[in-house]
Amino acid sequence: MNICFVIDNIFPSHGGVGKTTEQFIKLLSQKGHKITTISSIDSVNKKQFEEIKETKIYRLKGMKVPFTKGTYYQAIPSKSKVVKILKEEKIDIVVLVSYTVLGVKIEKICSKLNIPLALWVHFQPENITKQIHMDVEFIR
Fold first, then answer.
1. With 21 labelled, which of 73, 99, 108, 122 sits at a CA distance of 20 to 30 A?
2. Mean of the per-residue pLDDT values of the chain
3. Buried b (16+ CB within 10 A) or exposed e, 56-73
C-alpha cells in the first residue's frame, strides 16, 4: 500500500507527535508499505526533497510558528505541488497527523482526488497553548 503521512515537523521531530509518527513510518515501511511524507522546510531541513530508508520526504515552504523559538514550522501548501506528489506517488491513503493549514488543504485535495483520508490527532492542546503564551482554560 502507498501511504502518505502529512505532518508539519518530522525527521527530526521535536515532540511526541513527531516521534510517534516516525516510529509508525518505520514500522509500516518494514512491513513492505511504500511511505511518502509531506512536511515543511524548516531551519534544519532546507531541502525540498530527501529520501531516507523509510520514506520519501517532500518538504513544502514553511514559516516559523510564533513563540516557539524557531523549533516548530508550519507548511504553506501549494495545491499544484501537493496534487503532483499524491498522483506521482500513487497514494492509496493519506494519514493526516496535524490538522493545520497544510491539513485543511490536503483534506480538500484528497476529497477531489477520491483518496481516503485518516485523521490522526495526537497532541495535547496545552502543548500548543503554552508555546504561544495562551494557556488558559477558555482556549484549551
1. 108
2. 81
3. bbbbbebeebeeeeeebb
